[in-house]
Fold this sequence. Notes:
Layout: E1 2-15, E2 18-23, E3 37-41, E4 52-55, E5 58-62, E6 65-74, H1 78-83, E7 91-98, E8 111-116, H2 123-132, E9 140-146, H3 155-160, E10 164-169, E11 176-177, H4 180-188, E12 195-199, H5 202-214, E13 219-222, E14 238-240, E15 248-250, H6 251-254, E16 257-259, H7 260-263
Parallel strand pairs: 8-9, 8-12, 9-10, 10-11, 12-13
Antiparallel strand pairs: 1-2, 1-7, 2-6, 3-4, 3-7, 5-6, 13-16, 14-15
Amino acid sequence: MNQETAKILWNKPAGASVYRIGLTCGNEYGQADPGQFVTLRLPKESSPLLRRPFSIHRLIKNNGELKGIEILYKAVGEFTRKLSHTAAGERIDMLGPLGKGFTVSAAIKSAALVAGGIGVAPMVFLADRLIHEGISPTQTIVCLGGRSADDVLCDTDFQTMALKTRITTENGSIGEKGLVTDALSNWLKDHQPDMIYACGPMPMLGAVSAIAKQKNMPCEVSIETIMACGVGACLGCAIKDTQHAEGYGHVCIDGPVFNAARLNLAGR
């Protein structure tokens, strides 16, 4: 973990109110795991006071040399709206890499990646790492979903990686009409992945967890929640966690990635 003043490399639109921001970073990010996150603060701004957490979207490399990280974010609140107006060359306070990421190993040869809306943010980094570890693209699926076409992000990134992608939207404006979990369930009729990975709204995570439990498949979920500090000091991001004797864990230090079974999301 390192606190630094990162330089903005770019900050460009990537969809409806969605942006990609590139930031310089220290060498320790070369060892970051998919699913880990950073917290950001605008140095010249007094409001909002607290840092904001963002998943690492991908590592920026040039000829194998680490140059920075990229974050995918949606401008929906005061901080992200201000962030969307920053420009290349400006500086921002960054703390990271933080938290625990997804399990990735050479033993995982097939997987299902499930993302709802901006929950796709850590999945590009994850997919890239899985491919590096030797996953089989023909035995892997990426399920992307959202309310409408505006909520479906990064499909071209996964297609560039030669990963099969299934898109669902609730209003049918792109892909198949339905829920992202429908696409997952249909694919699982003919496949037995080594791992299901998911990130998105809590109801979606609960549904994915229920599917994994029913089929007795390992599943990891990345929890999106408000964090006051990101390092376990404030204890504000508590979540019911059966692995802890007191019954609660904390998303910032015990996660944000958890084994879905220990959170009992299917029972929410």
